[in-house]
Amino acid sequence: MSTPSVPPTPGTVYVIPPRSGAAFPVSKGQRLTVIDPCGSQVSDLLAFNLHDTNEVISSGRTLDYASRIFLTTPDPLYSNRSNVLLRIVADTVGTHDFLLTPCSKDTFRIIYGDTEPHRGCFGNLAAALEPFGVEEDRIPVAFNCFMNVPIDAATGELKVLPPKSKAGDHISFVAEMDLVVALTACSALQSNGGSFKPIHYRVDGTPQITNELE
Amino acid sequence: MSTPSVPPTPGTVYVIPPRSGAAFPVSKGQRLTVIDPCGSQVSDLLAFNLHDTNEVISSGRTLDYASRIFLTTPDPLYSNRSNVLLRIVADTVGTHDFLLTPCSKDTFRIIYGDTEPHRGCFGNLAAALEPFGVEEDRIPVAFNCFMNVPIDAATGELKVLPPKSKAGDHISFVAEMDLVVALTACSALQSNGGSFKPIHYRVDGTPQITNELE
């Protein structure tokens, strides 16, 4: 099924095609599952308070409260206002990144040297979030599901290695408030083991909200 | 001399008292030096495009382009729009943090268990930036001068240890565009080796801009 701008139908698996993105409401109490159907594919995740999109996922708050840069069950993901947006409730991979911003035209220009760069996850997120009133300057560091970014503790050097996820691996979150969630099938070759694959997602549980845009 | 809201007088050393903050314009081409006068004191640094404060320092862009989480000379600090805001041109310490958000009331509530928490660097930055039209929800991960946050590469665990800075140590930046810079003398005990000390700063070079607020 193609991507909705209305709340996803519970239990339905939605497809994000390679190098694209989607945004949708998730009600407090619902469970969001992000699935890597083919393996070795990253999905950038953003979350905003549905009722006030000035409240947004914050890597800095989350890592500070966790005292850890690698997150998994049962870690909470905090907002810039120190409220819990999402809580990780299942994780078959255990390796995700929360340091790097979504790949963008500038990423492809600066890191890859592309002359006609793809808009990347950044552009895909901006387009998907535009109907929810989120401007692209508000896109922060994403929680990058399945992204494999080891750190050298002595030098601080980071590497972007192929994801450890295998076909069918997934990570699930419970929403702790009504949210706009945005997801991508990541557009950067290095992040995805050299090829572009889709991402699947599913929302379970009864939606408490209707689309405020309608 | 007390903290200005107009451009700092070149060559003058300004004092940020313990647990407080300041914000001021810095012209393209000027050099900003942040000094730890007593040793073992952190200063959170934020930078915004003076002419459009929607453009703001970005840890995620900077770390991605550097492929490193520990920055020093001659690393550039990028904005959310992938422009260089500042370039590190001198650094007598070499250990700074760019992962964690400024300490806040919530930090003291969640990590320290304080019942009447201080407003922290976050509150100090918000107050200092308010005259420049920056709302507190726009405060991102800061470049935390002298903050010592080692990472365990295997587990991702991070520790907040006393800064390595000694009395008189400093870090200098050249502005690559006209900026609003905000600085603090950090308010969190753990970050500052257990005591609260001032921060000094100095701007050198001819100001090209006048205070747009006047």
TrEMBL record, chains A, B:
It holds the Pfam family DUF1989. It comes from Mycena rosella. Residues 15-180 form the DUF1989 domain. It comes from the Eukaryota. This is DUF1989 domain-containing protein.
